[in-house]
Amino acid sequence: MALVIGTTLENRYRIEELLGQGGMGAVYRAYDTRLQQAVAIKENTMAVPGISLEVVEASRRQFEREALMLARLRHPNLPRVIDHFVTPEGNQYLVMDFIEGDDLAHIIARGGPLPEAQAIAWISQACSALEYLHTQDPPIIHRDIKPQNIKVTPKGQVFLVDFGIAKIGEVSKTMTGALGVTPGFSPPEQYAMTGTDARSDIYALGATLYALLTAQTPPESVVREFGEKQLVPPRQLNNTVSPAVQQAVFKAMETRPTNRPQSVVEFRRMLERPEGARKLFGSAPPTQLRGTAAADVRADKRIPAASPPGPAPSPIVPPRSAVPPAYAESRRAKHDPLPLLLAGVGIVAIVLVVLIVVATSNSKGAGILALMPAPTMTAEPTKSPVASSTPVPATNAIEPTKFSEPTHVPVAQPSAIAPGAGAPASQKVKIGLVTDVGGVNDKSFNQSAWAGAQKGATEFGLDVKFIESKQPTDYEKNIDQFATEGYQYIIAAGFLMGDATAIKAKQYPNIKFAIIDNAYFPTKGVAYCDDTKKDCYDDGGLKNVTSLMFQEDQVGYLAGVLAAGMSKTGTVCTVSGMEIPPVQRFVIGFQNGAKWMKADTKTLNVYIPSFTDPAKGKETGQSMIGQGCDVVFGVGGNTGNGGLLAAKEKGLMAIGVDVDQYDTYPEVRDALLSSAAKNADAAVYNYLKSIKDGSVEAGIMTADLSNGGVGLAPYHDWDSKIPQAVKDKVKEAADNLKSGNLATGYK
User: Fold this and answer.
1) Whole domain around residue 20: which residue ranges?
2) Which is catalytic among the residues 83, 103, 144, 197?
3) Is there a catalytic annotation at residue 144?
């Protein structure tokens, strides 16, 4: 609930105007009665249902540490932090200078594209502030550079500010990382919640410069990754833009961090000395598109069953609130060029006003200073400990998932490089798993992958170890570590490791690699697989790489059959995240499965451009419930969770997604019929099985119902309530999908 205008906080700050508000916080203009000046106050609301006192206290301590760090910052292009305090209810407030002037979004909206010289002059001031932040110890990453957050005073001085919408910290086990992303300005790694660094700010700054020069919002980075849209060259929209500056913008907006300028200083030099851009690029423009149509894939293979177990960009308009879409685990796809990591359960970062995040040495669970996941800082990759005779215990519930039996994996606390179970390592094939920055105990993707590796190690007599990546710069180093220690197979857990895996696969042609959630497609400007190749595997030189993908439309279909079978109103619905192929597969499969079950079933769906907006998800769910929906399928990370909660509160039914949400979202257990699960553990297990039987091949291996890679979770509390006739239809659909006698309708 917004503070009442006229309220005085701390007997000092009189609230005068609400500047922006979200479900979990707000930004106000206030008057400091002590110093007699205007101030900006950022509020992070901790009064959230289900939040524990432990979380509130941990958040308070982190807020205190980081607020003090921000208060020490002094730079002519940054507002000062004046004060901070926490109310007895746990709500957090950060007080800073109120900056008079106009933000760049309003300037563009009024006057259109800016002259190149003016745009570069303002961006140069922003570069100065970012250079200062990035060179702090520890480094500070802003993570929300956009026109709305850059203000220009009447005297022409630029300030990086934040009047974005607040998000909350780790409110429960079910909440995903508070990923604050702005469509058009956030880079792919920020959607993925797998770690950002200075290069993430460079992408956003390049996108902001694009907006200044064209008066257009660039297409979302994740949409560009899928090849659904490309970046229209600024010179096509504004012919006064110089070729060198256009190239500098393209370079900053590369979707892969390794292809961008590696520091703000380098980017600034390219803008102020355009010849630097020409030297850096040569004559060819940087990559604008990544990915081809599924029909172009020539290396699709099925995993053997395990046993047992573009249009023109939109005009930039100053939004009333930032709608943060998340780039998440839903990138897993049968043929997608860059499947998304759908946000699971994890550490949530609390948003503070200056939208700058302090990178700490403990990136897991740290950082509450912005619209984003826990920050990272530069570090060496984890070193291998002295060999130990005591392996990490294998978990006791790692059966690769078959239909209606998804895996729930309680993983033991690992060491830095932890061994799998089984016979002496010297007698076995050596396999290394490099995790993404979520870590092996993330209760989601990485943890599930390690569980499958442990299961395979035990059953097939393999020596399996892992290294946890603390930040994206660790990927290549960690792969190198396994390679130089004689590992014959290396598994990379996550699409963000795509470049590192491809580069290292070519460097180590005698080692076989697998990568989860990333398929390689011939792409313009990518050195390891350019668009002259037929495919990236046999023809493109990645003959030692296997991509492990998922077929979401099949399990979505089963969810639709179940939903229609249980619906009393004849209307079922999906509360969906971003309209990207993995989510579309879930939705289309669900809708067609519902109509296969009952032809007259009405299906409702709303795509929400966010995976981290439970309030919007709940509101959308309530709206569709008002239209008669009595079974809600949440297909959008934390946004979808809001839809599940709406169903629970109305005493209706719900279906979860990605993992067995009976375990990860206990608040909605009463409503949960099942969950449409994607099982990384089964994919890894099946890959290890192919290692054991000598059937490993390069190309794309798709996890589906037939091999346990996807499937419905158990019915749990609803098992006795679901009619046997409905269960039989679900099984019938599953059997027919496995045999190929039934199609999901997704093309």
Assistant:
1) 8-97
2) 144
3) yes
